Amino acid sequence: MSPESARPSGVDVAIVGGGAAGVLVATRLLDDPDCHLRIVIVEPAAELARGAAYATGQPAHLLNVTAGRMSAFAEDPGHFVRFLSGGDAGAADALSSSFAPRREYGRYLRETLHAQPRHPALQWLRERVTDIERRDGDNLLTLASGATLVARAVVLAVGNTPRRIPAARLHGAVRLADAWDYEGVAAIPADADVCIIGSGLSMVDAVLSLVHGGHRGRIRVLSRHGLMPLAHAGSSGANNAPVDALLALGLRDRLRLIRAWTRAADAAGEPWQWVFDRLRPHGQALWRSLTHVEQQRFLRHLVRYWDIHRHRIAPQVAHALEALRAGDRLEVLAGRLQSVEAGGDGGITVRYRPRHGDGECTIRADWLVNATGVETHIDLRPDTLMGALRMRGRVLPGPHGIGIASEEPGRVIDARGQPDPTLLVLGAMRIGTLWESLAIPELRGQAQALAECLRAMLEEPVDSPA
User: Fold this and answer.
1) Whose CB among 48, 226, 403, 423 lies 3.0–4.6 Å from 412's, allowing a Cys bridge?
2) Residues 6+ apart with CB under 8 A from 130
């Protein structure tokens, strides 16, 4: 599908964002041949399904989940594996437990969208939405080009936005690349010393991008905790954790019980990762059953420890990072960034306060890479669509200021505290309400629920024969 040259004047559903979340919603809306809703995706990128995660073309950037768990359809778990194997049943068995290149997953989502019965009816505007206002019961979308589009309902599938390093901490013409600019990071000179701010999954991508580009210089990683993502450890089967025992507990007692489960797993010869695999389907229930105060405590004290255990990386990626550390090519430091100053020779000086120590330390480098992760606070994004919607009172920050407020199956809560049935959201912007809202299992479930909601709300009832 190529972008439309002629803009539609009005549609039933406008999907804002053509990354994984937006493509999954469109796929679900188009899989019913009896559905006749007019649908448009508004996405400025050159290809659909190339959001932050799947825009990479580098084969070393792997999925963080095995292929057997990445189907676009919960009711058809083997769908992605069949795509990878080309229908070869023998190859599918082996691929199910593999970590496929992320570029292949983007291609899979695009081809799955193309395969839907009503795909020819889908329109794609290669534009960026800058504002959405209510107009006579509909939604008037303003595009960056100045054009407008009227939609009966809008789905916000805006995906992830990188967190910025505060401008007040950058002094001078700092050589700075963003971890999600895969080509830009790979193009950093091979002999340059690099300082990466942040030690999560974005950092992993940045290191792999550097290696992909033939980098030989030294890499130093700085983050507040100095903790890197941990590795997966094989398949744990389908056994679920006795989650009811956790739901009845406060945060401290939950932590004690999970530690007891990991000790029991170790005694039984099982890796601790299997405990977290069994908790995986219950992430939203675990979050929503905590009180507001307990959620704040989690965000303040435990979130980083949860992240490195929950959001793990492929074993081969973990081995590659360990080899770099063992060869003194990669060093991870724990401390709080204070400032980055450009020198007259083009190099930079990074100043930080060590986590376990006094005073201030410095790192000398040639380039800085921002790998601080996803910006989830909409009030820190005033120059985006989320900022415009906030100014109009069409959205509110979600719990703890994270994402935007919403109710099931994704209706946005406006400044009056009322749900808007014509403005819906899925994915990253529901994180404050659901916590687990970024991964494919959550996205595909939300996409299906939104598609069903939109059909029920917008399709005209068919009169039965007299």
Assistant:
1) 423
2) 142, 143, 144, 385, 388
Residue 12: Cβ within 10 Å count: 19
Single-letter residue type at 49:
A
- Distance of alpha carbon 461 from alpha carbon 466, whole angstroms: 15
155, containing H or E segment: strand 148-156
pLDDT score, position 199: 97
What CA dihedral angle connects 416, 420, 424 and 427, to 10 degrees?
Answer: 30
Per-residue pLDDT reduced to its tens digit, 138-189? 999 999 999 999 999 999 999 888 899 999 999 999 999 999 999 999 999 9
**Which residues in 377-416 are b (16+ Cβ under 10 Å) and which e?**
ebeebeebbbbbbbeeebbbbbbbebbbbbeebbbbbbee
Burial of 464 (0-12, 13-18, 19+ CB in 10 A): exposed
Q: Which strand (E) or helix (H) includes residue 156?
A: strand 148-156
Q: Is the dihedral of CA 170, 175, 179, 184 positive or negative?
A: positive
First-to-final CA distance of the chain = 41
d(CA 351, CA 354): 10
Helix (H, G, I), strand (E, B) or coil at 123: strand
Q: What's the pTM?
A: 0.93
Distances (CA, A) of 275 to 41, 270, 316: 39, 9, 21
Determine the Cα angle at 208 with ends 203 and 209, to 5°.
Answer: 95
3-state SS, residue 338: strand
Strands 219-223, 330-342: pairing is parallel
Q: Which amino acid is at 107?
A: R
- Single-letter code of the amino acid located at 73: F
CA distance 118 to 35: 8
Strand partners, 363: 350
* Nearest of 400, 399, 382, 401 to residue 390 by alpha carbon: 382
Q: Note the pLDDT tens digit of each residue in 223-275.
A: 999 999 999 998 765 566 788 889 999 999 999 999 999 999 999 999 999 99
